[in-house]
Amino acid sequence: MPETRPAQGGDPPQPRAADAAAGSSGGSAGSSGGSAGSSGEVPGRAGPLARLRDAAAARDRAGLRRGLHARSPDHDGLLDLASNDYLGLSRNPGLIEGAVAAVRAWGVGATGSRLVSGTTTLHAELESTLARFCEAPGALVFSSGYLANLAVVTALAAALGSGKRAAAAGCGCGSFRGHAGTSVLVVSDEHNHASLIDACRLSRARVAVTAHGDVAAVEKALATRDEEAAIVVTDAVFSVAGDLAPLTGLHAAARAHGALLVVDEAHAFGVVGEGGRGGVHAAGLATEPDVVRTVTLSKSLAGQGGAVLGTAEVIETLIDTGRSFIFDTGLAPACTGAALAALGVLMASPWLADRTRQRACRLADIATDLGFETIRPEAAVVSVVLGAPATAVAARQLCADHGLAVACFRPPSVPEGRSCLRLAARPDLADADLETVGLALAAVRAHAPQAAAASQEGGDRP
Ligand SMILES: Cc1ncc(COP(=O)(O)O)c(C=O)c1O
Question: What is the pTM of this model?
C-alpha cells in the first residue's frame, strides 16, 4: 500500500506573499526565446529557475509559503511557547556548563564518524546514562533524532528482511545495497513524523500506512501480510496534535504477529511517564526486547542529537549497517556534554515532567473555554485547530501582537483543513503567562470566529 501522508515538519514563521509576487515568472515558459540563457532557459521550455518561481507562486496562492525569522536571544521579547524546550532547560546553567566543559576537554567537534574517531568516552558515558535512565538494555547516540529514525527503520528492515544476505552485505557499500526488498512489511501510523515517513521510504520495504491510532488496522496489516518479518513504527506522542499512541495495544499486536515495535519518543521523552522516562516506560514496556525506542536530545533535553534504545542485537545491527550512523560525524562534544547534564537535571528533578503536563492541561483548558478544538494533552504539546492556512498564519501574528510566540502548522505538516497553532508548555509557566495566552487566544477568537467553527467540521483527526 502506498504512503498516504505527506511529510510532516515544523513551520517557521512569516509568510512571504511579497516574495512570491516578485518572484512569479508569470508563465514564463520559453521566455528566453533563443539559445539557453545563463539561467538555463531553452526555447519552448521553462528554465529551472522559472519553474521554481512558478512553484513558489503556486505555494503562495495556497497560503503555503514559509520564511525564516531570525529571532533575538529573548525570543523578541515574546512569551515563547513556540519552541520545543519542554522543560525550559535551554539556558540552564548546568547544561551550559556541561557544554562548555565538554568543549574545553574535547574541542568543538567529534573529529570524525563514530566508527573512526568520533566516539569519545563522553559519548560512551551518555549512552550508558541514557540506557540506565530509560531502563533500556542499551543505547546508541546519533547526531540527530532524524538520523536515528532513518537508521532504525532502514537498518532493521534490511537485516530482518534479508537475513544472511544482509549480514554479508554489511552497510550496503558494495554492489548489493542491503535494502529490504519485499520481505519486510513496515506498518506506519498516518500521523507519524516526517523522519519516520522518510525512513519508511528509504527502507524500500512495503509500507502499510494505517489510520491514526488504529490498533485493529495494525493488527490486520500484520495478520494479512505475505512478508515474513514486520516492523510497526509510531510516534509515542504525535508531534502536532500532542496525543499519545496506544502503545500497549500496538505492542500486543506486534508481539502476537512476530513484529518489532519502533517508538519515536521525541515528544514524550522528558515529559511523559515517571520522571520523564517516556511513553514506552509509562506503558511498562521498557524492558521488552521487541520494543525499540528513538529519542531526540533536542526537545526536553534542550540541546541537539538523538539516540536509539534497544537490545544488543538492535544496537549491533545499527553499528554495522545503519547508514545514517556510519556515514555521519559523531555528535559534537558540546551537545554530548549538555545532554549528560540535562539527564542529571531530569534525575534530580523528577517533578519537572508532571509539572509540564499540568501546565499543558491549563493551556488546553484556556483554548477549550474559548471554543477552540484541542486534544487533552498527554505531554507538553497543545494544538489549537484553526482550519485554513491563512487563518492560522493570521492567528500566529495576532498572538505575537499580544506578546505570545506560537508555532503555526499548515499542510503538508498537517492534513488539509487542519492548520493550527501549536503551543508548548514548560514547567516554569507562571499564572501571569497563562493570562497572556488567554488574552492572545481571545484575540484570535474575536478576529477569526469562524476558526473554531471550521475546526469542528470535517478534518480527519479524532
Ligand atoms: C516526532 C519527531 N521525531 C524526530 C524528530 C527529529 O529530531 P531531531 O530534531 O533531533 O532531528 C522530530 C523533530 O522535530 C520529531 O518531532
Answer: 0.87
- Same domain for 186 and 329, yes or no, is yes
State in Å: Cα 130 to ligand 1 middle: 17
pLDDT in tens, 145-179: 999 999 999 999 999 987 544 444 444 444 334 44
Structural domain range at position 206: 93-348
Ligand 1 is surrounded, with C-beta below 6 A, by: 144-146, 149, 193, 195, 235, 239, 264, 266-267, 296, 298, 306
Q: Count CB neighbours of 225 within 10 A.
A: 17
Exposure on the CB side of residue 277, measured as CA atoms within 13 A: 20
Instruction: List, for residues 337-346, the tens digit of each pLDDT value.
Output: 999 999 999 9
Distances (CA, A) of 68 to 12, 71, 224, 303: 6, 9, 45, 20
Report yes or no on 340 lying in a domain: yes
Residue nearest to atom 7 of ligand 1 (CA): 145
> What's the gap in Å between 304 CA and the centre of ligand 1?
10
- For 30-60, the pLDDT digits (tens) are 344 445 666 666 788 889 999 999 999 999 9
Mark whether 183 and 222 lie in a shared domain.
yes
Ligand 1 mean position to 354 CA, how many Å? 22
